[in-house]
Amino acid sequence: MDHPLAGEPAVDIRDLEDDSFLISPNGCEDRIRTIHRLAGLRFTPTHRVRDLATLISMVQAGIGVTVLSEVSRSLIPPDLALLPLRPQTSRRLVLTGPRARTWHPAVRTLADSALDHLAAAGAMSDAHTG
Predict the structure, then answer these.
(1) Stretch 80-91: mean pLDDT
(2) Distance between CA atoms of 113 and 67, rounded to whole angstroms?
(3) 46, 74, 107, 116: which could join 20 in a potential S-S bond, CB 3.0 to 4.6 Å?
(4) What's the chain's Rg over C-alpha atoms?
(5) What is the enclosing helix (H) or strand (E) of 106?
(6) Looking at the chain, which runs of residues are DSSP E strands?
């Protein structure tokens, strides 16, 4: 975490313009392109790697920076920082299982967990607005 912005509460994409930018085409490239466009920046990655573990290792080695989604947090080693990015964007993820047969128990557990999380988030939102 020796990057000068690692201790900040959030990072503006414009502040990363001078850094080597690493990207995985299998990741959130479209979302990252949108963030750059919203900030009025050209999207010019320095390196493209296929594997997320390689991408994280390259950041860990100080080769550059990258943008990952919040769902990647559990994959980030303790010596790296995953910070909120501005401008902020969001996306809608849909979780579904097969319609014509019973869902695998792991998928059912994941879906139930997601529903519980959404219900809790809704209850918290109601409490803050009510």
Answers:
(1) 86
(2) 26
(3) 46
(4) 18
(5) helix 105-129
(6) 11-12, 22-23, 47-48, 85-86
